[in-house]
Amino acid sequence: MLLGSRLRDWILLLVCNLIWASQFVLVKIVQEQMGPVFATFFPITVAAILLIPIVQSEKRQTPAKKEAGISRKEIGEFVLLGVCGQVVAQLFITWGVRLSLASNAALLMLVLPVSTAIMAYFFLGERMTAVRWISFILAIAGVLECSGIDWSQLNFHNSKFLFGNIMIFLSVNGSAFYNAYSKKMLGRFSPLQVLLYSYYAVFLFMLPITLYSEPQSFLNLPHFTPAVWFGLAALAVFQYLLSMVIFLNVLTRLDATQAGLCNYLIPFFGVVIAAIVLHERLTTFMILGGILVLASTLLITVYEERKRARDASAAPIS
């Protein structure tokens, strides 16, 4: 039963990362008619609106949670989760990629699971095991094979790319913070509530920024092309709603470090999507790298949990 449950969680994480890998293509489509701020603000707002009736329905089915309410401290935690997590992660990556090199961004993205493991240690007390170290090594090796980093183009010392590199690094750590801190909030709230309440914080924080920096995008709404509307709808429904609900549900059962390692699947799926949509070349090394990443995530999500359960059953009862 445990093996089947963990295998299911692994498949769900594959789905999440497949959706997240499509973000770069979708963002490129929508930014043909809007700036990066509106491209982040609008689909998150739509996702929040879609979530409201779902959360209300969930509350009616669990009246005890409805009566509990939210304390001022918890409101502050959701503001922290939304602003330092979602806003930093989503907005900074959009700006950062524009101001840096693609190879710099690809290499900086390798920091994400490591940052998640570090934050999980401080916020949740999670520790690295031998299996997790092996999984990380395999995953990093696989990503380096399949991500297509052009080592000759890497440039971290040129001040021209410094601000963009900093933005990307902050975005990566924003995602890591959200992964770890949302796990902490899941002890008191459902995955749907954690997502919606953090989106409330994103909306309140980003609305004045969007109105100030990109007011024309609101006026251009009636003139968006079908392709742009498709991109916005896909971002709202799949990127910011479906994938996040799936991820937070899996996070209730897995450690943040385990779930975070699966983020190394994003570069692999990004390569596959580019090969299908943009007809870019998919090499043998990229395929082998993807297999390594898949193996590492399977090792940390399925094998580690099975080993932990076996050790627990073998332990003497005191």
Number of domains: 1
Uncertain segments of ≥5 residues (pLDDT<50)?
none
Percentage of β-strand residues = under 5%
Q: What sequence of helices (H) and strands (E) makes up the elements?
A: HHHHHHHHHHHHHHH
Structural class designation: mainly alpha
What is the count of β-strands?
A: 0
Shape: globular
Helix share, percent:
over 70%
**Spatial separation of the terminal alpha carbons:** 26 Å
Mean pLDDT: 82
The helix tally amounts to 15
Structural overview:
The model has no long low-confidence stretch (mean pLDDT 82). The protein is built from 15 helices and no strands. By secondary structure, it is an all-alpha fold. The longest helix has 31 residues, at 284-314. It is globular and about 60 Å long. It has one domain.
Task: Walk me through the topology.
Blueprint: H1 2-21, H2 23-30, H3 36-61, H4 63-68, H5 72-99, H6 102-108, H7 111-124, H8 130-146, H9 162-185, H10 191-213, H11 216-219, H12 226-251, H13 256-261, H14 265-277, H15 284-314
Provide a quick synopsis of the model.
Helices cover 80% and strands 0% of the residues. The protein is mainly alpha-helical and 318 residues long.
Keyphrases for this structure?
mainly alpha
